[in-house]
Design goal:
heterodimer; A: 82 residues; mainly alpha; 5 helices; B: mainly alpha; Rna Polymerase Sigma Factor, Chain: A; Arc Repressor Mutant, subunit A; 10 helices
Chain lengths: 82, 216
């Protein structure tokens, strides 16, 4: 069976890191995505750094998890007066 | 007349369905809870005044966020206290908080970087985001907190998608620099010297830099 990895070009750490944001936001597709995945599989340092970036993004995302029911009531009253 | 009342009621329901998301956005932009509530209230009043301008009803969420963003920029930006904690002096887009804390000996039940993620509070993240320049703060919150796509953020903030993309990269970089100060306060990272990434992949010589293929 042909190893698909042989068709994927190697990239260095700087090139990999430059793709982190696109990958984090799910905008990295096709060849560039495969190259990054190959690099991450081979480079422990970049993999750890990427995992950290992912954790940080999810920590920021959690800011949106809390709801304040009081604001809904206030706005309902405001809408009633419009 | 009945139709108008019915339309107004439907519009009110749509607005209320988006209030929590709008309020979270406002909370990330403002210095206080009271200010965020005033921002949401003003947004709702403007939305009602201009509701006939909403052409695509399925895009009401984006439209409301655009109004809030515009109100924030025009009313609050100028009046806002411009107090900011100084950033480290160097302008380095490759700055990595991970590299700063990755070799720290501070371990609290895992790796130093995971310990830092566990230790950092919501309030500290709010504070760090709040201290970012507005254009970066707004873009980061719309992307990471509210989960809008780059195209939606471009529509809300009325800039090109490429600008959104570069602002997100810059915002994350600046946020890490802000959090670095906090990590240093916790004793998890040093503020003295930036540590460099040590390449372990053996691809250092790889050339040239291929521009990532970007798809909308």
């Amino acid at each position: 069976m042909k190893n698909k990895n042989t068709e994927i070009q190697s990239i260095n750490c700087e090139q990999a890191v430059a793709r982190f944001n696109d990958f984090l936001d799910n905008y990295l597709k096709g060849k560039t995505r495969k190259e990054l995945l190959k690099h991450l599989a081979e480079c422990r340092g970049c993999m750890d750094r990427f995992e950290f970036e992912q954790l940080l993004k999810s920590k920021v995302h959690q800011l949106g998890n809390s709801d304040d029911p009081a604001i809904k009531e206030k706005i309902e009253k405001l809408i009633g007066s419009l | 007349m009945v139709n108008q009342e019915l339309r107004k009621e439907i519009f009110a329901k749509e607005v209320l369905a988006n209030i929590s998301a709008l309020h979270r956005f406002a909370l990330s932009l403002c210095q206080s809870k009271q200010e965020s509530e005033e921002l949401v209230s003003e947004t709702v009043v403007k939305a009602f005044e201009n509701r006939r301008q909403l052409r695509e009803e399925e895009k009401i969420k984006q439209w409301l966020f655009r109004i809030l963003n515009n109100v924030f920029i025009s009313n609050y930006r100028k009046a806002k206290n411009n107090r900011r904690i100084a950033l480290p002096q160097f302008e380095d887009s490759s700055f990595s908080l991970f590299e700063q804390i990755g070799t720290s000996s501070f371990i609290d039940g895992g790796t130093p970087e995971k310990s830092f993620i566990n230790k950092i509070t919501k309030e500290k993240i709010y504070q760090a985001i709040n201290e970012l320049p507005d254009e970066f703060k707004i873009t980061l919150v719309l992307c990471d907190v509210n989960e809008f796509s780059y195209a939606e953020i471009a529509s809300i903030t009325q800039v090109a998608i490429g600008t959104v993309r570069s602002r997100i990269a810059r915002a994350r970089n600046l946020l890490q620099k802000k959090l670095w100060i906090y990590a240093a306060e916790l004793g998890i990272a040093s503020r003295e010297k930036e540590k460099e990434h040590v390449c372990t992949c053996g691809n250092e010589e790889v050339e040239p830099l291929i521009k990532p293929q970007y798809e909308k």
